[in-house]
């Protein structure tokens, strides 16, 4: 077997695919890490759903402002040229097709791009959806970032999601620790794999029939 | 002379009654009008329907309102958080009802109410549990869900400055739901850090025009 990508390597790999001038929303959790690897020579605008565009990194200790936070409610900064807006405008940016890319985590993604990332479906779980459904269907491109396999070895890239859906056919690309996939109406295909991993290996791990 | 300023938070919330629907601004604690909520708790009314993005954080604001058993129903997008224990306990005990709404639909439904729209067709949530049983329509090849406006009897919001006509400017990401909730409630009460003399707020940067605001309460920021 081979060495899976670390979380930081995954973040760096996603960052490489974000174009100069893109308006981008990074979801809570793992996708937030992509911000650390955005190429310095590109102007990339980070949007946070709670009302800022041009989001900068975390402030120095002591400089936190409780009224300047990101969607994960962590203190952030505003870059020069950034701005604030209210929630209707923020979600108009998504639904209105103004946001180029969003990067989200997932429990499962189907080969046709269905996304499940908000609810495990357990009966006693308290459901919480936040902006995930708006982001998933609103951004021009939705990228998912996740480990390919669960802790018990089940593939999270699936023929059809078994968890409750966040959006239908909304994901275009899936970045995992073992491979990058394109997903969509014509199914899943492998874009690249980590060194040493073959398409045959991926077929075995996922149970999916990728073209060679 | 129009003077929407009221002297105290208690006076601001004095006509909220049992069973009222109340929008509360804020995303987490940013923009949450804590002093107005404290006054509402003090007032002792219950059976409230609360509209907020979350369902309370820690021990203050909306969390305290839930802790005190004043809330019958919460309409929000993201109730479950690391410090939402008062909501979690009340929900699990069956003491309050939850209507979970995707965040953008929450904003759009509030905005629709404030704009006088009868309903909206939104693509968000189509094909998911949160659209089950709802009317759908295909428009130009895209699928939409019919969602109805959310209005309220009252909105409690927080702004940085206001004047006696109710014009408001906000501070950073504390703006969030304030401007749209102000539009969607019959009575909007704004907690501001400072009352500006009329005419001193730059008309080019007023975010909420005073027509949407009925009362302004000055609560200087404690620092």
From TrEMBL, chain A:
InterPro entries associated with the record: 3-oxoacid_CoA-transf_B, CoA_trans_fam_I, CoA_transf_AS, NagB/RpiA_transferase-like
Record keyword Transferase present: yes
UniProt GO MF annotations: 3-oxoadipate CoA-transferase activity
UniProt entry keywords in alphabetical sequence: Transferase
Pfam family, one: CoA_trans
Enzyme Commission number, as recorded: 2.8.3.6
Residues of the signal peptide: none
Top class in the EC scheme: transferase
Family from the record: Belongs to the 3-oxoacid CoA-transferase subunit B family.
Protein name in UniProt: 3-oxoadipate CoA-transferase subunit B
Organism field: Sphingopyxis fribergensis
Taxon lineage: Bacteria, Pseudomonadati, Pseudomonadota, Alphaproteobacteria, Sphingomonadales
From TrEMBL, chain B:
Superkingdom of this protein's organism: Bacteria
SMART domains reported in the protein's UniProt record: CoA_trans
Molecular functions (GO terms): 3-oxoadipate CoA-transferase activity
SUPFAM superfamilies in the cross-refs: NagB/RpiA/CoA transferase-like
UniProt xrefs under InterPro entries: 3-oxoacid_CoA-transf_A, CoA_trans_fam_I, CoA_transf_BS, NagB/RpiA_transferase-like
Signal peptide: none
NCBIfam families the record matches: pcaI_scoA_fam
Similarity remark: Belongs to the 3-oxoacid CoA-transferase subunit A family.
Name used for this protein in its record: 3-oxoadipate CoA-transferase subunit A
Originating organism: Sphingopyxis fribergensis
Taxonomic placement: Bacteria, Pseudomonadati, Pseudomonadota, Alphaproteobacteria, Sphingomonadales
Gene name of this polypeptide: pcaI
